[in-house]
From TrEMBL:
Family label: In the C-terminal section; belongs to the transposase 35 family. In the N-terminal section; belongs to the transposase 2 family.
Organism: Leptolyngbya foveolarum
Domain annotation Probable transposase IS891/IS1136/IS1341: ranges: 167-278
Entry keyword Metal-binding: yes
InterPro entries attached to this UniProt entry: Cas12f1-like_TNB, RNA-guided_DNA_endo/Transpos, Transposase, Transposase_put_HTH
UniProt-listed GO biological process terms: DNA recombination; transposition
Record protein name field: Transposase
A molecular function GO annotation: DNA binding
Domain of life: Bacteria
Domain Cas12f1-like TNB: 290-357
Keyword DNA-binding: yes
UniProt KW keywords: DNA recombination, DNA-binding, Metal-binding, Transposition, Zinc
Location of the Transposase putative helix-turn-helix domain: 2-47
Length: 376
């Protein structure tokens, strides 16, 4: 069994939108109050506040007259917000994430509902305290004989409502194939494959840059707090949503094709967070979205019975000759092709790197060999 999320757009009625906006607002308020309480307790008394403590705080907050409106929304969404805050602190103390931030209204928001707070009847979703089903646009049907375990309602900064249904499904592995591929990630060419194919980088941000610049200039001229500024902010958010949608659509189609056609996929394990600290390349690297591409390859390979091998980031894939194995000392980024001083073979920098990545991936898969270069 695999956990899979199905995401859909929906267009709530005026009554439903009013209830959902109040639910998102209450969930955001509870999250921020709990984060503030935990932060204050640590700086004041060096005390860690647990999830159980914040749950008790929530019970007391509901008894206060000025916070009595918390009773008008589903308590499950509020409790799930506290659980998410606990997860954020767990990741922070484990060194996997930064300190949690306060949530802002302009970023939209989300609310999570477990089985106690919704009903799934005859293909319709009924949320707690809502008499009518959500008017979901079913772009694809859920698998037969499955019911959602969790439902998440989200409002994007662009004003779009989406609902995500989490279900347990059986995913059949794809039939085995013999083809194996090595992938070199880049900017001018998003992917360079070991068979010589190069996938162009669509550069979605650059394509929408002028439109985004125009919308942001209009936003900067509006008076803060005015209705026109709110409209201009929505326009900026819509442009950002267009960029993100284009990028996600391209990545999903590309990764699905790679997983369908190849049994083994070898890719570099790049430190993207460190690479974007280079201000000259940060925008191009972020637009390429290498991290999301590798993430999609990971879970799709797991779903469909493929093998994904990550090569050590220090492996000299570009500087090593794929014919004789000779490694040059230096190879600046501006050199896109080079001749091996040992065997004289001319290499395209990216294709040579992809071939070496595939060879290293095969070695790791077969014998678990380390491909990290030895250092004195």
């Amino acid at each position: 069994m695999s956990i899979k999320a199905y995401k859909y757009r929906f267009y709530p009625t005026a009554e439903q939108e009013n209830l959902l906006r109040r639910t998102l607002g209450c969930a955001r308020l509870v999250y921020n109050k709990a984060l503030s309480a935990r932060t204050e307790a640590w700086y004041r008394d060096q005390k860690r506040v647990s999830y159980k403590d914040t749950s008790k705080m929530l019970t007391e907050w509901k008894k206060e007259a000025e916070l009595s409106f918390l009773k008008a929304v589903s308590s499950v969404a509020l409790q799930q917000g506290l659980r998410h805050l606990q997860g954020a602190f767990t990741n922070f103390f484990a060194g996997r994430a930064k300190y949690p931030n306060f949530k802002k209204k302009r970023n939209g928001g989300s609310a999570e509902f477990t089985k106690a707070a919704f009903r799934y009847v005859d293909g319709q979703v009924y949320l707690a305290k809502c008499a009518e089903p959500l008017p979901i646009r079913w772009s694809r049907l859920l698998p037969a004989n499955v019911e959602p375990s969790t439902i998440t309602v989200k409002l994007s900064p662009a004003g779009r409502w989406t609902v995500s249904l989490l279900v347990d499904v059986d995913i059949e592995p794809l039939p085995p194939v013999e083809k194996q591929i090595g992938i070199d990630l880049g900017i001018s060419a998003l992917l360079t494959l070991s068979d010589g194919e190069k996938v162009a980088n669509p550069k979605g941000f650059k394509a929408k840059f002028r439109k985004l610049r125009k919308a942001q200039k209009a936003l900067s001229r509006r008076v803060k707090g005015s209705n026109n500024r709110h409209k201009a902010r929505l326009q900026v958010a819509r442009v950002h949503a267009e960029i993100a949608d284009t990028r996600k659509d391209m990545l999903h189609k590309l990764t699905t094709r790679l997983v369908q056609e190849n049994q083994l996929i070898a890719v570099e394990d790049l430190a993207v967070k460190n690479m974007v600290k280079n201000h000259c390349l940060a925008q191009a690297i972020s637009d390429a979205s290498w991290g999301e591409l590798v993430r999609q390859l990971e879970y799709k390979c797991d779903w469909y019975g493929r093998t994904l091998v990550k090569i050590d980031r220090w492996f000299p894939s570009s500087k090593r000759c794929s014919s004789c194995g000779h490694t040059v000392n230096k190879l600046p980024l501006n050199i896109r092709s080079w001749d091996c001083p040992e065997c004289g073979v001319q290499h395209d920098r990216d294709i040579n790197a992809a071939i070496n990545i595939l060879a290293a991936g095969r070695a790791v898969e077969v014998c678990g060999a380390s491909v990290r270069p030895e250092r004195a």
